[in-house]
Amino acid sequence: AQKVTQAQTEISVVEKEDVTLDCVYETRDTTYYLFWYKQPPSGELVFLIRRNSFDEQNEISGRYSWNFQKSTSSFNFTITASQVVDSAVYFCALSGGNTGANSKLTFGKGITLSVRP
Amino acid sequence: SQTIHQWPATLVQPVGSPLSLECTVEGTSNPNLYWYRQAAGRGLQLLFYSVGIGQISSEVPQNLSASRPQDRQFILSSKKLLLSDSGFYLCAWNDWDGYTFGSGTRLTVV
After folding, report:
1. CB contact under 8 A, A105 and B46
2. Sign, CA torsion A97/A102/A108/A112
């Protein structure tokens, strides 16, 4: 069975601080995909990144960066110089594939990030 | 381009009333379709998924059912709503490029 653990439930930072959101996953699949989604107060899920299990290269997109480490089964997300607009719930998710029954997403419980001005 | 439509956006229903939430997808064929629920202050839980017309898999026992009468239509239903059915319901589909979520339906059972 697949499992995603986001041990942090709520994080509060002051604007311009860096913040790291942790994600630890469990799976028996050799091929899998990891995701991060942002859920602003309006409720919709905004896709941030997808990473497959064969690509351990870290990724940077503007103020966002992701650190994927298979050795520790972690896929952590860092926001540099946080802004008030970053306030949202952030979900880490895992799937076993792109098609068929393996494609269903397993979500962590989410981390509520509050960025204070 | 692919789009996903989900309605209604909000719904307030009395206990014991029926429910029908609809989700349709455009710009793709034979997508995998999903219904997720987010209870207040909690994460997203997969309720149902479908890999084809008439093929429904249920992830958790509950008061809800799902149907897929057409390739790009996914319906979530209940004959009699319970208070515990309140939550935020999201429809989603996926292909090789990833997942797309609908804008969600916020259901309040009173």
Report:
1. yes
2. positive
